[in-house]
Automatic annotation (TrEMBL), chains A, B, C, D:
This is Gfo/Idh/MocA family oxidoreductase. It holds the Pfam family GFO_IDH_MocA. It comes from Pseudomonas hefeiensis. Residues 150-280 form the GFO/IDH/MocA-like oxidoreductase domain. Residues 8-137 form the Gfo/Idh/MocA-like oxidoreductase N-terminal domain.
Length: 388, 388, 388, 388
């Protein structure tokens, strides 16, 4: 008889009432089923913090007024009670400081992206992580979609041949107007370099497009040539970016990320073309992967349990038969599932397989810094640098 | 300060390892976040039962070998520990017997559809329910989708005018071959009248199409003219149905439900046309509701938090901003959420608002019986009867 | 050296200014390139008639005030000058009388559908045709689309196995309002049984759906069970129809044709399912043929010169490389092209291969009469009869 | 009574059997109905030339062995017989020399794009045109689509506000392999700089994307930053291009044109975003124009006679009711129709309204030269120059 499975005890920093992404994390973890919320420091606003904790069924004693206190108090609890995993869903500037302290205090960390505010801070976090035996994951949710793994596998196994072109785009419209000026809290801190980092759109969604491109094409982007834009008076950071790409494997590409594409929702999309065929995936219709070929009709591979032509990595990330839509929360729940397996692994490695980690964070930060440098300078091409 | 929210204690009958729908229920309840699994009788196979319970973190004492024992034992526990809600995910023939016993033992019930094997049994269950103060919900998951509610609201408020035509279709392909003969367990019991009832496809998915049509058109189907079919040698029940409809409000319609539409996944779809316009919704792309009009261009209403043109009922059933796909589990989680609110309601009514209940079950049973009677008889039209 | 090709001399009855379908015929013939307009009796309105002729470059002497005069005068011209082919684009009640006279006078005929007002008249026309050596074609334009031929070929060659289900639908919206009452000329005569025949929607577009189903499924529809409707006060003929189908090869089906599906344009669509797979084609996106299969991913076959996987019949009906849309006029031009080849064929048969003819007209008329009889009667099923 | 309309007498250089584009021009002109083919020099291959002429019904005397002879002989014919319009469908390097001679000899010209091999040659042609009273049109077929005009009108009238972003892409796949090496004639001359000019993909389809962007955005592109690529050993010209754009009105953009996007057909696509909304049009589905807005649901405007919300310019370019697809040949026929009206205009201007002319050619040539210069040089941005 198997032993009774114990859920992983999870705490949150951030994610008080009204914060979209914190709620999404809790829903995804709930969907996965392997986690139990045991504590939180949800908001700097004491009322919101208590309110959120109570609504989530936490005793007042596990609802902390600040994250430092939470780390200390939880570390002092008996091993079978204390938090095992800290989920960080604060504004960007707190990601690295909290993650570092949590790792040092012996907790696994799952952090919203970006990993840090800048490359320097990120390299420091990396050093902490290298001296730790804890796991660190980064919530690049789009890398949790099964058909993204299917696409990567088809690239790797040569189905489309040598990759020549990568076209990735992420056009959103929600910053077409001055929403920060109109009181949108998320738009507010995202435009404050102190809280958000140097990149606006380029950091917020450009990094998703970037990571998706490197992940699926299975080769790093080496050089970029970028144009950034800012379209609202008083806005401090970029709200729009486009760039040409040169990749390590010889492919060229285009990356578009914008938050002023009025009326667009969230259509992150990637297309890859090799000498034998092409692939296309679009986040708003995540169950379909289009496969074009030079010598046969277009195929649409569909997500869904029981499709024998899908790869193992894709199949592990599905719950339902084809035609029963799975979406964003399911993709995030896949990251949580991989995290749970890694935490419970009796012989864990330094990474949680399947979960984007510090290297993904590092690549994304190099991307942001290169984009800004290229935009500001005169050179046509700028190389991505993961060291200082 | 709000009191700490207590999760609703939930038990399962059925849903052992390998059973798709039980797992979906647990994932949906987890996604909602308002429930805690406390007990189960997951499988008649003792090993599977124990295995499932252990994997779900249940102590062996709350993992029961049969549902009767579970009802008795749980009823004997102190109120603050015992199960509050029983989820029934067994083959069809057990739905009504278990539900009746559970209601009598003082538990709320959430049952997979159909509510019963036949009209007689269903009316008996209804009588039990009427003598109870417990809630009864039926897992018509497709009625949990936000854009289904949006469509219904647009019909009700006259956006498309008086409804003239309702076209609903549910073409699946998974029974195109003799999958039961090939060992598919779900196909197996579904084709056994003792376990499944008189309807095959007509009961399994025809009732979904039927309920969706009545729900969105906001008027009952009164008469049908049906042709059923069975396409595999040795198959006992229908695997295909098509019928003409006459509705109470004067609309006519067509209902197609089939499980031999080779290659189709799960594209339940409804179209309605009134004298001012039309609506179209398709389950495989659930975030989009197409609105056609006689005097303006086609519109696509999209699901997503923050779209001011959506109705309140739709908005309550969304979690994420537009463009972040929500799917089948989210729709089911919406039913769980409504159930949780109704259970915690200090002044509960007989129904859980928003959750399909015994009336939906009754209509569906009348539909199955009318379809079979019409198919077998000579009359062109057969009226639906909810009484015997 | 090849001899210089002479264009086929063509005359029109009907198709004066303001008449949509006459203009479409001239554009399609022009696109084909094998025809030359030499005469016409375009309108009973003398001014419109002269105006149309002049605009089309006809000398006044070849612009006739009535079709009888035209037939007489043209027959009296020297063989190398006189009309060879008569195109009939009048209201329905004139189709058969004109066609009969034209055949008798030695002209080939290409007629708008329906071939006649009723079965009796149609059988009389058939007799005339059997005594003639002239060709007779019927403008079932949708049968000119290349991917319709591709679908038929895939059915014939067994790609989807034995056909079990045929779902054909043709929902239009243009009669949702009382457009005849508002002065729409086309809606006007179409609702007059004297000019239109007994069928309204069932004749106007139901026959297109019917012919497409028989053509692609490659088997006759034997029995139908129908419900017709009329939705506007004062409207004489049906504006809506739905029916269940039984086909000769054992397939069952559903046919929907309606002109009160408010907001719909012209989405004639057919789906067929066999024991190995299914096909789907939609007139509004005519270049794509969806092929579903029980054992491989969905494929989309696309129209376009140079796709080696398309059948010969489809390839002959394309002009442009894939991705350069061809549409309705190209489909009609395909009928004209087949007609031209048959007319110039030194050893012509009784039919123009590839062009729907009197048999298609006969089947369509049997369909209309069966639909009306079934709708009016009590019997569930009515057989189609092509004889009286 | 109107006078009898006389068709415009048209001659061809190029377009012998096997040449796709020449046939398309004849079909488009035939569809329009205002033209009559009277002469041609279809091929340098004498047999093909005679064969083509005979098949098209030309007397041998009007089928010329070379274009110079044709110009001379036709000019010597009586005015009521001789060619009025010369259509040039040869390889690129002959476009300007033939056009210049034809204009000088008194013929109107409709030329395939590009107008010339390089900017110098183009400016010379422009000078000839300025000294002539003849019309000159350039076959930018995609500018003949009605919904392209609708999009431009919506931009002009401020429906989407001030344009911020223009994303235009034209990914084809037909040069993914070495098709020239495999004997494809069209691929062959297109890769020869002597016949094709300096641009490969950038000239062949990049100019279509460029012209579409300037036309719809209604503002010139001023600067570009480009990366070109060549992917087949031995291929001389670029087969792939991507670039960042800066436009005169302050918009930024991205242009992608590639012929190595394996499996892609012809999905030229443009998206524009302003501060109030966005537009999207895709050539493979040309009847639909998507309109996104910051404050209402997405709309799909559909091409089709009788849609009152479409602009006059769009309505003039439609033939059929909505839902009856019109495509590439219809778009080209729209250019022919505009050309016919301009030629018959009793008070003609220097341009044919609605037909792209020498200025469009000039812009396209400046684009090609700037793209190549930028690609080869070190500067990040290169300005487009229409003068030398």
């Amino acid at each position: 008889m198997n032993p009774v499975a114990a859920k992983i005890r999870m705490g949150f920093v951030g994610g008080g009432e009204g914060a979209f992404i914190g709620q999404a994390h809790r829903q995804a973890a709930g969907l996965d089923g392997g986690f139990e919320l045991v504590c939180g420091a949800f908001s700097r606003d004491a009322h919101n913090n208590q309110q959120t904790g109570a609504a989530l069924g936490l005793a007042a004693s596990r609802c902390y007024s600040d994250w430092q206190g939470m780390l200390d108090s939880e570390a002092a609890l008996p091993a079978h009670l204390r938090m095992e995993l800290l989920v960080i869903v604060t504004p960007n500037h707190l990601h690295a400081p909290i993650a570092s302290q949590a790792l040092k205090a012996g907790f696994h960390v799952f952090s919203e992206k970006p990993a840090a505010l800048n490359l320097r801070e990120l390299l420091a976090l990396k050093q902490v992580l290298e001296g730790s035996d804890r796991l660190y994951g980064l919530a690049h949710t789009y890398l949790g979609y099964p058909m993204v793994w299917q696409a990567r596998e088809m690239v790797r196994s040569g189905v489309i041949g040598a990759v020549r072109k990568v076209l990735v785009e992420y056009p959103q419209g929600w910053l077409s107007q001055d929403v920060a000026g109109q009181g949108n809290k998320q738009a507010g801190w995202r435009d404050d370099p102190e809280q958000s980092g140097l990149g606006g759109c380029i950091g917020d969604i450009g990094t998703h497009a970037f990571s998706l491109a490197e992940f699926v094409a299975d080769q790093p982007i080496e050089q970029i040539c970028a144009a950034l834009g800012t379209h609202i008076a008083g806005r401090q950071l970029d709200d729009d970016a486009a760039m040409l790409l040169r990749m390590a494997g010889g492919a060229s590409g285009v990356l578009i990320a914008s938050q002023v594409c009025a009326g667009e929702e969230n259509p992150l999309k990637i297309r890859l073309y090799g000498d034998k065929g092409g692939l296309e995936w679009r986040q708003e219709e995540p169950a379909s992967l289009i496969h074009r070929s030079i010598d046969q009709p277009l195929q649409v591979l569909r997500s869904g349990v029981g499709q024998p032509w899908l790869c193992e990595a894709a199949r592990q990330r599905m719950r339902l038969p084809a035609g029963h839509p799975e979406g964003y929360l399911e993709a995030m729940a896949n990251l949580y599932g991989d995290l749970a397996r890694a935490i419970r692994d009796p012989a864990p490695g330094p990474d949680a397989p399947g979960v984007p980690g510090i290297e993904t964070g590092l690549r994304g930060m190099a991307f942001i810094e290169a984009a800004i440098a290229n935009h500001r300078g005169d050179a046509k091409w700028t190389a991505l640098a993961c060291t200082q």
